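Fold this sequence, please.
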Amino acid sequence: MIATTGKTNLLGLTQPQMEKFFDSIGEKRFRAGQVMKWIHHFGVDDFDAMTNVSKALRDKLKAIAEVRGPEVVSEDISTDGTRKWVVRVESGSCVETVYIPQGKRGTLCVSSQAGCALDCSFCSTGKQGFNSNLTAAEVIGQVWIANKSFGSVPATIDRAITNVVMMGMGEPLLNFDNVIAAMHLMMDDLGYGISKRRVTLSTSGVVPMIDELAKHIDVSLALSLHAPNDALRSQLVPINKKYPLKMLLESCRRYMATLGEKRVLTVEYTMLKDINDHVEHAVEMIELLKDTPCKINLIPFNPFPHSGYERPSNNAIRRFQDLLHQAGYNVTVRTTRGEDIDAACGQLVGQVNDRTRRSERWVAGHEQSAEGDVAPNASPAP
């Protein structure tokens, strides 16, 4: 555990919360905007550097408040320009943040939890088990750290971070309030000034929270689909047993209908060799999504140790893409980025102090099956 100071951390406060804070200490509300600009636009965490704030107020803030982001444990830069930060959060666990440059676009992939409670079978984060929800300061702190490392001012024409996707470690909708607060900061002009079309929340399908989402925010939505029928999806994405596809897609359509403006759902589909990459899966997917305006991202599986899954051949990926394309869908195949620094999709593991003991059981199970492969005649462990 990282020791807490007992001071109010201003990093994760939205504008209304910041105004309330200044109200509570007998200060004018406009101070909220001043301090937010220093924190988010200029990456300042030292009150003394906030030169348009009076010395008396700076001293007052030093006594009761702080600007504290997660601790950066490491920063790696891939040969393709992808960057990965490992940051330590208050629970003591580490999470990962990835920056992917592509032409004029710079996308930051942000984590919402240390580990993940959902245990999707092909995702290495899920195998880490679950430790904790990140605070709003720890979620937005990842954007703050990345932005500082580029030294660019948010909401300007040459900013480094143009898009944020909540697609790092964890299921964002299971850390609802903190993620909503952080996304408001991403979009606020006093925060990072990113358009609502360029902030995307990705979910594996927590239906009640998708319905709740529309009451709070209008960010873009991505669905981790990964299978075109309930039987297969329940194997790959266990939450499907609770919220099956028909219910899930209805919920996504309801959310998208609240956005208007011709915005469409993004469908994420990780392609696993001989599991969900056959022609019949593409045919089922065409039928499944026919009433859901969407664009489809096919993500060739990125291997990790003991996963038991493989990446499909390029031919299988192309065939799948062509079938969807011919049926009128907008389909892209996600290029694997940052693989050399384990920053690719599904490879983020951080270092989670697992409270569920899932990782322990999973490793033990795989070691046992590996021993079985090597010595088929050996007697099983008692």
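The first helix runs from residue 15 to 24. Residues 370-382 have pLDDT under 50 and may be disordered.
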